[in-house]
Specification:
- Helix 3 crosses helix 5.
- The protein is built from seven helices and seven strands.
- The two termini are about 35 Å apart.
- A seven-stranded mixed sheet has the order 1-2-3-4-5-6-7, covered by helices on one side.
- The protein is an alpha/beta fold.
């Protein structure tokens, strides 16, 4: 995993002459980061923060970013919405393709009065009955949900049906929590499969639930494959076990242009 270090932040802010204290926009996407840290101390004036496609499992250490207007943390391992209430300037929040299952967590955004756009597509909570009505009723200040503008008529219906919708959501969350508890009790801790295990083929072919754990497991196994293909000394001799096949010619005998200088002719 990658830590958010001062050196990393400076490398990512070349457009600001490496000055992090006055930085207003920062992109740390697709970097295998698993924890948000230090940004509130080093970059207090951040307005735009891109953290999508990492392995972050918790929203934390962002409350002191009073100027933050846009947070993109899509495609991570988040299961809850939390610790954003003091980001008073936040106007756009993208949580697409995470694992937020408790729809009532949107109530934690009620104090973010400047929030106008929210994206929850691809989260378990977005499959709840009356999902859209519930969010609209709870977040009066919201203008756009999942890229779709909120119509005045939608808002009226959401307020009128709020009691019934609230009961539906509460019942669904209660059922969901019981299911999750049973799964945790009956399922042993997952073993992170190594690429040099004899069952690496089974790992890539087995059907599994899409969970934060499975996403992390997939990432680690994929990283090992990349190490093998890049010639990492720690993984020499493992190519056959991950199904890496080097072909220099096609089925018709035509030579292929594989653009790999290390291939032996």
């Amino acid at each position: 995993m990658v830590r958010i270090t001062e050196e990393l932040v400076r490398r990512r802010c070349e457009h600001n002459d490496g000055q992090i204290g006055s930085l207003e926009e920062l992109s740390l996407h697709q970097m295998d980061i698993d924890r948000i840290e230090n940004l509130d101390r080093w970059c207090p004036h951040l307005k735009i923060l891109y953290l999508q496609a990492n392995l972050i499992s918790k929203l934390e250490n962002l409350n002191r970013l009073k100027s933050l207007t846009y947070l993109n943390i899509a495609m991570n391992n988040l299961t809850r919405i939390e610790n954003l209430s003091e980001c008073e300037s936040l106007s756009k929040l993208d949580l697409t393709l995470n694992f937020v299952w408790k729809l009532s967590d949107v109530e934690r955004l009620e104090d973010n009065y400047n929030l106008r756009e929210l994206f929850l597509t691809g989260n378990p909570c977005a499959t709840y009955d009356c999902y859209r009505q519930f969010v609209i009723a709870k977040l009066h200040h919201l203008n756009v949900l999942d890229g779709k503008p909120i119509e005045r008529s939608e808002r009226i219906v959401a307020f009128q049906n709020h009691k019934e919708v609230l009961k539906t959501v509460t019942d669904r969350e209660t059922d969901e929590e019981e299911v999750r508890k049973r799964k945790e009790k009956n399922t042993p801790a997952e073993r992170i499969s190594s690429i040099d295990d004899d069952d690496s083929f089974e790992f890539w072919t087995e059907k599994t639930e899409h969970t934060p754990e499975s996403r992390l497991k997939f990432h680690r196994s994929l990283q090992r494959i990349k190490d093998v293909q890049s010639g990492d000394d720690n993984h020499k001799g493992l190519e056959a076990k991950v199904g890496v096949e080097r072909r220099l010619t096609g089925k018709d005998g035509r030579r292929l242009n594989i653009n790999e200088a290390r291939s032996k002719l």
